[in-house]
Design goal:
By secondary structure, this protein is α+β, with helices and mostly antiparallel strands. The chain has two domains: 148 residues, Trna Endonuclease, Chain: A, domain 1, CATH 3.40.1350; 120 residues, Aspartate Aminotransferase, domain 1. The protein is 30% helix and 30% strand. Strands 3, 4, 5, 6, 7, 8 and 9 form a seven-stranded mixed sheet that branches. Strands 10-11-12-13-15-14 form a six-stranded antiparallel sheet. A hairpin with a 5-residue loop joins strand 12 and strand 13. The longest helix is centred in the N-terminal third of the chain and has 17 residues. 31% of the residues are buried.
Length: 296
């Protein structure tokens, strides 16, 4: 015997769930906050850590949750609400994200809005903002099946431009002028890094593609920079496995947060022109290691 729903057969034993309203089940926003605070990984954004709840803001109000990714110290400013998204919560989410970004300018920040229903108006507002705010929308659903209630989270929007890996957009070259319009701060950061690398590796030049500005030999980029919000850029570079410990130690000693790629011999970090200039000698040493990768 099988259960049917429309023209589709449902195998026996698979229950049909129904979505419940969180408030109608006797819970409120503080309950939802607590669930996320106790298990930040449930949002599906990685193995995050909870830093603060109901965090006072200098501009007034309280940030519902402040979460952190321990791998790269990126921070997530989370606003939680029941029901449908509204203008007040959208503005509050962006305001608190901006507050924390100003307080911790060297870290990558993401605005996160968790709601039961993400409305069309929310998408319209985010579309107007373009990619100036890296905002993530997550829908929270309380589901009942076989007499049990389950809280689930689904990411429905992630306005976040991930730079392509080196070589992935090699057939889409652009120009310096394109990048000056798109992200002048990324262009300036790339030129600053090039000035430091050139004495160590004279063959390196800037190579422009749609998603990255590369420091390349020929058409192979060994350093690459992508646009980030807040006048920041994502910097990545290649390191031989045998040199990885040395590179990580250099960055650890100067307190630079970075992420080690799990599949490739790459390190990535959020940076800007001033940060690179302040650590010029370290980046010169890293340039020597990157050159060894290229010549190996």
């Amino acid at each position: 015997m099988s259960l049917t729903r429309g023209d589709e057969d449902m195998p026996e034993g698979i229950p049909i769930a129904r979505t419940l309203r969180i408030r109608e089940c006797g819970f409120d926003e503080y309950w939802l906050q607590d669930q996320i605070y106790q298990n930040p990984g449930s949002l599906g954004l990685g193995e995050l850590e909870a830093l603060a709840k109901e965090k006072h803001q200098s501009s007034g109000g309280r940030l519902d949750l402040l979460l952190k990714d321990p791998e790269d110290d990126s921070m997530y400013e989370v606003e939680v609400m029941l029901g449908e998204t509204d203008e007040k919560h959208i503005v509050r989410t962006i305001e608190y994200w901006d507050n924390e970004k100003r307080r911790w300018p060297q870290r990558q920040h993401y605005a996160v809005l968790v709601a039961e229903s993400i409305t069309r108006r929310f998408f319209n507002v985010i579309q107007l903002l373009g990619q100036s705010v890296p905002i993530i929308a997550i829908q929270a659903n309380l589901i009942e099946a076989n007499g049990s209630k389950i809280l689930s989270f689904t990411k429905v929007l992630d306005v976040y431009e991930e730079p392509a890996e080196p070589g992935s957009d090699i057939d889409a070259p652009t120009t310096e002028d394109d990048w000056r319009k798109k992200s002048p701060w990324t262009l300036e950061t790339a030129k600053t890094l090039l000035d430091l690398v050139k004495p160590v590796w004279s063959e390196v030049n800037l190579h422009y593609t749609r998603n990255i500005v590369g420091l390349a030999v020929g058409r192979n980029s060994y350093f690459w920079l992508g646009k980030r919000s807040g006048n920041k850029s994502l910097l990545g570079f290649c390191i031989r496995e045998e040199d990885m410990d040395q590179a990580e130690k250099l960055l650890d000693e100067i307190g630079v947060a970075y992420v080690k790629d799990k599949k490739n011999p790459w390190l990535r970090m959020t940076t800007d022109k001033e940060s690179i200039l302040a650590r010029a000698e370290v980046f010169k040493t890293i340039a020597r290691l990157v050159r060894q990768y290229a010549e190996s």
